[in-house]
Amino acid sequence: MTLMIHVDGGSRGNPGPAAVGVAIRDQDTGQVLHEAGYFLGTTTNNVAEYRGLLKALEVACAILDQASPARGQGPAIHIHSDSQLMVRQVLGEYRVKSADLHPLHAEVTQTLAGLDQTYGSGRPRSAWRIEHVRREFNARADELVNQCLDMGEDVIVTDAQAAKVAPAPKTIQKTPHVPAQDWLEVVSTPGAKGSTCPAATPDGKRSSLSTTTQGLCLHALTAAVLAGWRPAADEGGQPTGQAVCRHCGRTIRWDRSAG
Q1: Based on the structure, what is the number of domains in the chain?
Q2: Residue 16, Cβ neighbours under 10 Å: how many?
Q3: Model confidence band, residue 38 (pLDDT cutoffs 50, 70, 90)
Q4: Which of 48, 92, 179, 253 has its CA 20 to 30 A from that of 145?
């Protein structure tokens, strides 16, 4: 993969409001990978040119890291700029005399050296090319600069890389709702006679009214209903309480666990 990069920087006034434009496409497929203008605030034209190149290199490195191109298979990036001063300084043909440009030039040089080590043969300029082009051949980057200056803010037209790395929507894990559970217990009651219900419930047995009907004394359930108990699904009724079974005289107690 070789990234074709068009970059521009400009200011309205020197210094004045400034912005950079970056346009990147895949040379092999022609696909536009990044088109954006970035607002810098107030600075000089030459600083904007360097800021534009640094932004282009930042985006290009992110694209290359994702694509993992084969090492040493020609230049990974091919940069086009209409700033003859910046291009010749990056190539070492012009000295950097401005104190404002020294740190920017050093950062560009370091970034390009890293590209050579990662995607080239390790030798200088083995992973990148930069060339000066006339302004008309850098029209898209220039257009992005002016759009950004007109709006006074960043203008992101295309960002294929951001779409790839955008986090997936988070799945909200909901805690399952546990329905309320009704329980009925036949309390041991001194002096009470034994139940003659066919499904006689022994003293102390605790039964789930919603899931366990087998073995539940029907007389005990009747006593609870008569005393005001209602299933959890029904509105009203008493969630807890007790009553005396009219059949056997034993105490019937019920309660409802929270859902």
Answers
A1: 2
A2: 15
A3: very high
A4: 92
Neighbours of 82 (CB within 10 A): 22
Closest-CA residue to 81 (of 144, 139, 40): 139
3-class state of residue 256 by DSSP: strand
Q: Does one domain contain both 153 and 234?
A: no
Q: Domain containing 62: what range?
A: 3-164
Q: Where are the alpha helices (DSSP H) in 68-98?
A: 84-90
**pLDDT tens per residue, range 139-168:** 999 999 999 999 999 999 998 876 554 454
* Cβ proximity of 45 and 82 under 8 Å: no
Return the amino acid letter for 130: I
**What φ, ψ does residue 3 adopt, rounded to 5°?**
-95, 125
Contact predicate 102/108, CB 8 Å: no
Write a three-state SS string for 1-20: CCEEEEEEEEECCCCEEEEE
Q: List beta partners, residue 9.
A: 20
CATH number of the structural domain spanning residue 83: 3.30.420.10
Element (H, E) at 163: helix 160-165
